[in-house]
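Following the same procedure, sequence and fold were stored together, as reproduced here:

>
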Amino acid sequence: MNKFYFILLVLLTASCSGQDFSINDFITQKLESKNKKILIVECYCDNGVTVKKTDDTLITINVKGNLSSLGYHGKQTAPKKIDKETLLFRVVETKDTLTIISKEWTHMHHRYLIKDLNISIPKNMKYEIKKILGVDLEGRKTN
């Protein structure tokens, strides 16, 4: 009987062996402030956001992201890097506000999350961080 359980354990372990991956990548995105008065940052950013005011007129966004798959039971090809479009923030301009929106998402065993976010803004610009809730990341559309 013990042999039966051992063989069953081996078969279950073999059938669950996935091809997990975790890839870290980074990008620097620069935006003209165009005399906007407010920057709104929309992201999950579990590790927080660091905002520094500078004498520069550019907004500089330094993003370190992680694309990963954990516990997927099928075959998959692990990417070599994170796509540039995934790392870049989506930008929305209104009258006096510039909104940058992360492209973080989760889908079952796969996810893209920002691990580190540092932003430099002009010293006269105000900013607001709008946290995306973790439960809202599942199946999130990013375009």
Summary: The first strand starts at residue 21 and ends at 32. Residues 2-15 form the longest helix (14 residues). The chain has one domain: 19-136. Residues 19-136 form one domain.
